[in-house]
Amino acid sequence: MKTTIQNIGQFVGQEVWIEGWLWNKRSSGKIQFLQLRDGSGFIQGVVVKAEVTNQVFELCSTLTQESSVRVKGNVRADDRAPSGFELTVTDVQLVSLAKEYPITPKEHGVDFLLDHRHLWIRSPRQRAILKIRSEIIKAMRNFLDENGFVQVDPPILTPSSCEGTTNLFHTKYFDEDAFLTQSGQLYMEAAAMALGRVYSFGPTFRAEKSKTRRHLIEFWMIEPEIAYCTHAENMAIQEAFVQHIVRHILDNCKLELKTIERDLAPLENVIAGPFPRITYDDAVKLLQEKGHDIPWGEDFGAPHETELVQHFERPVFVEKFPSKIKAFYMQPDPERPEVVLGADLLAPEGYGEIIGGSQRIHDPELLEQRFKEHQLDVAYEWYMDLRRYGTVPHSGFGIGLERTIAWICGLDHVRETIPFPRLLNRLYP
RNA sequence: UCCUCGAUAGCUCAGCGGUAGAGCAUCCGGCUGUUAACCGGAGGGUCGUAGGUUCGAACCCUACUCGAGGAGCCA
Fold it and tell me: ipTM strictly over 0.85?
């Protein structure tokens, strides 16, 4: 009978085969402990010399780290095992004897590990993070699908930038210039006018020379866009969305959270109540009271965000930023036209902005005026069309997948949240 | 782009002007409950590159290359 380590608890008292790899081994003369993994989980195989053939015992003593093996054994519940189960080995088949494995059980530097990322992802910690990544994506899709959103895929090759500010990756589209997308938002606005509630899920590229623990050159974003939706409704959706994700991970990734030693208390608090909201005005006042030298009208830097977040136990919405420091498409507040109906969601524990969202300008004249102010070119004719033909108030947001993962996992760098991170000066492996 | 720090064995690091070191990994030997197992032994180096100072440089100086952390920008 063949099974996976994940399901091995169903076979207590029975003899099963598992197919996997040896990730570490300890031996003691007449007993050997094989640390086995098969992708679905980890289990220890105990090889007792008196209980197997000499051939099997000898084979085990020659096994190297990361050799691939098929192992037969009796499943036992054992309190000494981290997963609760152990395998008393009865037979072993060698699939391939691994050469000297570079990633030893000792500590390694970041550069070395990133050079060996294709092997690093085999380690228990990295496996747990990638598993949580998959579950976060699943939770996001579940929430959106259950709330009437339709997935729409925007293009990756685009004729120009969406927001104008950041540096884009340039490429050629036959004889034309083209750029890798930095956001699918403008296309999602078109899609929302066709399908009501939509979301995109795809990669995003920023050619910024950013070199911090919060930045990747290539990262994934989820960008929901909703027709007939106000700024307030937009924030309510974001709050429910983030709480759904955290709840899903707490319910479904207990073993993985334990593997990465995540403190669960801050996560449990995220789902215990509503997210606080603070206006940009009040945020500036708070920062000034705390001794920060920031005038009204200036955007927050990393130290400002860190300070702000310390005053709240849950993710906090900072809303109504000055329109001058925000994107051209954001709807002005009718009561105070110098600020916009938009909000950033700042994650707790210093993870920074994970969501940026806003109500979009739906008035054609105002949008035309913003185009002129920002000196945007005619490539946006189609975007103006959305206001010419049945324009409606609408809102949306973008959530950065890797920052969300880093926050939920409690990691100190986003590079561990993606299988093969693209970083400044790192395109390998 | 700017600021700070770093580069010595396959890996992680110590050595900071006078014969190149340790732990892990590898190989050999020992051990029936190990959890980064442990104990004994062996092999393993153009000290990032190029100059300079010095009787003598891994060590001091200069430049360059690569990397890390942070800033700006952002998700």
Answer: yes
